[in-house]
Specification:
This protein is mostly helical. The chain folds into 2 domains: about 40 residues; about 45 residues. The chain is about 65% helix and about 0% strand.
Length: about 110
Amino acid sequence: MAVLPPIHRPSVAIRDLMAFMRQRSREQVIGAMLAVLVTIIIVILFLVDPQINTAPPQQVIYVEQWPANRTDDQIKADQKKDQAERDAALKERQRQFQKLENQLGIE
């Protein structure tokens, strides 16, 4: 006496399923199809989800090192130079937005 049923080809299993479904009412067939569809959607989401936004990209942080014996004048000069670079970048960004505003006709 076998514990498991005999192994058949997939086409035989599909024909058996179709014969079984033909004996069911229309509502039962629609319900079964919806249950299978929802299950397939859930499985697809579980397969797709791990590939989306799994880890943040590597972030490079640059650090400046200065000698410990810098004078206050050197520090202030560096700060003025850095502030001038930030101001220039800000003005360039404003110019780019102004150009975009003119192109789009925004007032």
